[in-house]
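Take a look at the protein record below and flag anything odd:
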Amino acid sequence: MRSWRRKLIPYLFISPFFIGYAIFFLFPVLWSLRLSFFQQNGLNAQPKYVGLDNYGQLLKDPLFIKSLSNTTTYALGSIFIIVPLALILALLLSRPRLQLREFFRLFFFTPNITSGVVVGIVFTLVFNEQYGLINNFILQPLGIAPIRWLRDPAWVIWAIIILGIWRFTGLNALYFMVGLQNIPPEIKEAALVDGANRWQAFRYITLPLLRPVLAFVLSFAIIGSYNLFTEPFILTGLDGGPRNSGLTMTMYLYSNGFRQIKLGYASSIAYSVAIIIIVLTILQLVVVRAFRQD
């Protein structure tokens, strides 16, 4: 009996975490998976089994296709604009004789600790057509006509990408800085002594050694892009602004689940987002691994 108690007590100490995990995460996830195969409109409505019809309906839903297109556009902006800018910023902040390095680290990390609601409200003023910061202090001195950032469907998604650049570039740069600090400087110095120029040292030494950090940053860029909700919601409203040009997948999920109470359909949207994130994450890991082998 004493031996049995000795084996049981450690599990009793860690059981609160697993109980909470099962109640507040595992059960809702499995229940929503089951619900995605049912049609349930309303909290008290009787669920009706429809199989894969909810997923098939997504392919015919123009609003879902629009939200998928908008979200993918933002994800491409995160991968090909925000991540490269973060790497460049990290390289600049990692210069050995840079003054006030700690100040710049804090400065570029600050947007990440600011509430997304506050950021969205501030950027509605930044993108204002009449007195906004970009139109009045950047475009007007250059002789460029004001842009209707949040009213022109062609510019709404670019406004969201610009907000993402301000909000997430600094955080990703800090990740890259940690990776750069873990690269022994002797390796780069040896390459320069052997005749490699700075670009070759970066391409064949620094970048391959940053592969784990790069994979981490890209993975979180994909996950964050397809879970984006607060900032575009504040900027454009739940419908995504003109012609749904700012509608994201999570906004459309929220609209179906909490406004229209289409619980089964909303669950199918949620699992579609999860499947897309998993597939894209695996693809980027394969690409990063192939880059290392190259």
